[in-house]
Description:
The chain is mostly beta strands. The chain has two domains: 10-48 and 404-519, Lipocalin; 117-378, Tachylectin-2, Chain A (5 Propeller). 6% of the residues lie in helices and 43% in strands. It is built from five helices and 33 strands. It is globular and about 70 Å long. It starts with 9 loop residues before the first helix and ends with a helix.
Amino acid sequence: MKKRWLCLSLAATLALSAGLLGACTPQEQDPDDDNNNGTSTEYVLPTWQTVPESWDSKENRASVHDPSIFYDEASETYYAFGTHYAVASSKDLMAWEQVADDGEFSDLYGSAVYKYQGQYEWPAALEATLDLVSPTAEGGGIATTTWAPDVEYYNGKYYMYYSLTKYFGASHSAIGRVESDSVLGPYTNNTLIVNSVGDSSVHPNCIDPELFYDEEGKLWMVYGSASDGIYIKELHNSGDNWGLPIDDGEHAYGTKLWSGTKNQEGPFIFYNEETNYYYLMVSYGDLNKSYNMRVARSENPDGPYVDITGTDVATATGDNGGNKIAGNYIMGDDADGYAALGHNSVIEVDGEYFVVAHVRREEGNGVSGMHNLYVFQLFFNEDGWPVMSPERYAGEKLGTGITQEKLAGEYNVVEHTVGTTEAFAQSVAYTFGADGTITDGDGADAGSWELRDGRYVTITLGSGEDAVAYEGVAAPAYESMYVSREWAMHPAFVFTAVSAEGRSLWAVGTFEAQAADTAA
């Protein structure tokens, strides 16, 4: 069976061997066309000629733990703010520059220092919150940085919401806010937003704040972790009280959205006007072993949020709740694994959605300690459920021109593990035929697939009672397989889909087979 690789002619394939690769040339998109949604023009396939040189430069690779994305209109720049005071910037969501390193608080807060307990140096602006929370070394070394900040802009001021906790794993925490005339500070004028210090009752952990406006213009803050789950709290949306709690009682926590049963943290809510849903994303598990991303949705900003099985995640028990978007995985037989994808934020740009997350690596029998900043496109299947590209964003765009014949070829397919586990899901090689068949490495029947409207796919693996159907999207991408600490990069088609049980499937076209077959 002949396999086709999008927009490559024989001449282009031969040019590739000399280090050149052509791409499909997209048509101009009418910016006034409200119905284009990125699909009225031909799809865009990235190549090394269109991807920024620093996209995979080890010298320029950014590291941000718990990245929260913010677009600064004044400088026309994207910023990712993270735990440990780290900050990175980008003009295009592809090439990132490290602006502030871990532990360097002076970049954001200036040089004024508060010596907490006479020895630990903190930004002077945080003195009141530090004295309230009283960080200790219980459970490990004393924390000396803020956690998971979120930056917002209102009426000429930048506001950074941050969190402090007594010690790692404690639920005695506080969310505060500082402000600045510049996106990069210095931030001062500390204000306490909500805290759980000294509360002996069941309560949320006041960490990981993220703000968003709903469709009616109301302002909300979602926050929390495994200590009684994820909560949402309404804030003032205008005037001198902007960004302060409407109900500002000492322990007015708001409404619980997600139960605290499996180390949930890092909540983020965004709205998609096409699907008319609010989406709540969280991360489950241990950052060092089993981190994985989950999502649920609601028609209302303050819930209830349900997953694809109809489970209200506010009542989820054990390891249940939320569609599992991504976990530990290995794409390719000889590739090194990706791990700890999570604590993400999401940004919408001209109708396209992007997940900004930190990613670690498989390292020996464990996971690396790096917090690589990665951006992935987020798509939505026919049922309005989000599915994430398995490849980092490199300028690709959905659009017309993708056909089942063009998609046909060999793919590495990952069925993500179920639940929260340290295991890495290993890819399996399948051939997707233009006739809708799927065969395994031995040529045996392994399932079927179908493309609709140039983007939506149903992929069924197995047969009979064991068959599992995945509903998702086919998209162009730029593959960045990591093999033996070296990159192997090339354009490719990908599939990303989710089953009725909330399990994700990723598939990435294999370059060698498609390029060789095109040349033939």
